[in-house]
Design a protein that fits this description.
The chain is about 80% helix and about 0% strand. Helix 2 crosses helix 7 and helix 6 packs antiparallel against helix 10. The radius of gyration is 20 Å and the shape is elongated. The chain starts with a helix and ends with a helix. The relative contact order is 0.23.
Length: about 325
């Protein structure tokens, strides 16, 4: 098959992944804002779509890390076919977890799928061990940091406003939540949209269409647009899980969770590290809920969410590896 057709398939699948990532991860930015009625669902989604687009257009460091951190695009055998298998595997897992309302990580799915398809194509020697290790440490460390900071932020807010009127506190923080949700959506765009950009740029390099991992403008624009459109659809099942089922979120809790998660994600973006926005915001909510009242958190549900995090990378890797092997029979 012509290499340009294969690259076109990668670009289509990458944009589809970005679109699905948008509606799968909409909950990350607006779940707490919708659940506390700081914004109506429609207004929250419009705001998240715009801020996602803006964030996606401004940064490319994570794209370069995804594009070269796990495997070398200049030496990978059958690199375009590897990327096709990667994206199909990641999309399948994203749709399965979306259908069941599980806040699984699109980032874990993509990285797991890329790892699995690279191993299927070139063995473990095809994996860039140091880059893979750095990415996995960021993925594992960011939720732990978000949980800790969320707990501390909520604990400090409890002390500061201990003697204040709950009605006034909720009114004030409900307004502040609009700004923190916008910041959260912006940071989501700065990190998550870049993953699809990295895959598309990887395809261009491995196919010999361009020589460097610099992200072309049209790649940034198309990925940002796909994510914004996906965000505009919304992922209501996951919004319900994150906004109401973990614990009863009040405006002060939503503010604390959004500030925490957005800060962790933006720090990762500035250091060119891909992190899971899903894991980060969920961990921040758990940390805030624990500080509010440990028994208020539905830990059984939290346990199920954590299990989905643990299994995402291996399942996505196996899916993508199997898809690559099937493709190899015909290509």
């Amino acid at each position: 098959m012509d290499i340009y057709i294969l690259v076109g398939i990668v670009i289509f699948l990458a944009l589809a992944f970005d679109f699905i990532n948008g509606f799968h991860d909409t909950a990350n930015a607006i779940a707490t804002t919708v659940s506390t009625r700081a914004l109506s669902p429609r207004a929250a989604i419009i705001m998240a779509s715009v801020m996602n687009f803006v964030g996606a257009m401004l940064f490319t460091g994570v794209a370069k890390k995804i594009g070269s951190g796990i495997a070398d695009p200049y030496t990978l055998e059958n690199g375009v076919q590897v990327l096709i298998a990667t994206l199909i595997g990641a999309i399948i897992w994203n749709l399965v977890t979306w259908w069941f309302g599980i806040p699984s990580s699109s980032s874990h799915a993509l990285i797991g799928a890329l790892t699995g398809s690279v191993i299927a194509a070139q063995g473990f020697d095809g994996i860039n061990a140091s880059g893979f290790r750095e990415i996995v440490i960021a993925l594992i460390g960011s939720p732990l940091i978000a949980f800790t900071i969320g707990f501390i932020v909520m604990w400090i807010l409890k002390i500061i406003f201990a003697k204040s009127s709950p009605h006034k506190i909720n009114k004030g923080f409900r307004t502040l939540q609009i700004f923190t949700a916008a910041f959260q959506a912006f940071t989501h765009g700065t990190n998550d949209a870049q993953k699809a950009m990295g895959i598309m740029t990887f395809a261009l390099v491995t196919a010999g269409i361009q020589d460097t991992m610099d992200v072309p403008f049209w790649v940034k624009l198309s990925a940002a647009t796909a994510m914004a459109l996906g965000t505009s659809i919304g992922g209501w099942k996951i919004i319900k899980t994150m906004g109401t089922k973990i614990f009863k979120i009040e405006p002060i809790n939503g503010f604390a969770a959004d500030v925490t998660s957005a800060s962790v994600i933006f720090t990762a973006t500035l250091t060119h590290l891909p992190v899971s926005t899903t894991h980060t915001i969920t961990s921040a909510i758990l940390g805030v809920g624990s500080a509010k009242r440990f028994s208020a958190v539905k830990w059984s549900l939290a346990g199920k969410i954590i299990v989905s995090w643990i299994i995402t990378i291996p399942i996505s890797a196996i899916l993508a590896a199997l898809i690559y092997k099937v493709m190899a029979l015909f290509m």
